[in-house]
Amino acid sequence: MTRSLTIAMTVLAATLGASRPANEARAEAVGPRVREIADRALRDVAVAVYDSASPVIYYNPDLMARFSPELRAFFMAHEYAHIALKHRRSGALGGEPGTFYRSLQAKELEADCHAARDLGQDGRATALAAAGFFAGLGQARNDLEHPSGSARAAKILSCLPPL
Ligand SMILES: [Zn+2]
Fold it and tell me: What distance in angstroms lies between residue 60's CA and the mean position of ligand 1's atoms?
């Protein structure tokens, strides 16, 4: 390697190195772009996978189509909330199974609350539609990691922004 090329590369490396913190700070402020990926094999309407560099929301378009536009919007807002809250399933690992599911259920309620707040005044109808849907499920739940419909409805209503 010639000396001038080495210098050029050193300068380039220094430039890249210097510009990186600024870019990182910006990415942190705005947040990395969330990719939405359709997956017809998904067994849930949507699932968020938080990763600081490339968060992804997988959704099943066939299952989504069974719900109203308001509910679809809420489900997506809920998944975006999981990402905004940096929820990882692994954070709930360890300890007894009861603790594991309680931790996951707490995260579900946090995401519902964040979604209701984030939808704000403009999205009030969306959040109310979700609260109505979950209230209709009553004590029923899809699985052990989700709280009952009643609990989710109550959480959403308690997190609606004031009128
Ligand atoms: Zn969730």
Answer: 14
Q: Do 76 and 149 share a structural domain?
A: yes
What is the Å distance from ligand 1's center to 47 Cα? 7
Question: What per-residue string of b and e applies to 131-150 under the rule 16 or more CB within 10 Å gives b?
Answer: bebbeebeeebeeebbbebb
Interval between CA 27 and ligand 1 midpoint (Å):
24
Residue 18 counted as domain residue: yes
pLDDT tens sequence for the chain (163 residues): 444 444 444 444 443 444 444 444 444 445 679 999 999 999 999 999 998 889 999 999 999 999 999 999 999 999 999 999 999 876 555 667 778 888 899 999 999 999 999 999 999 999 999 999 999 999 987 788 889 999 999 999 999 998 8
- Ligand 1 centroid to Cα of residue 29, in Å, is 23
Residue-number span of the structural domain to which 146 is assigned: 68-159
Cα–Cα distance measured from residue 143 to residue 61, given in angstroms and rounded to the nearest whole number: 21
- Residue 87 CA to ligand 1 center (angstroms) comes to 9
State which H helix or E strand residue 56 sits in: strand 56-59
Q: How far is the CA of 108 from the centre of ligand 1 (A)?
A: 5
Q: Domain count for the chain, please give it.
A: 2
pTM above 0.70, yes or no: yes
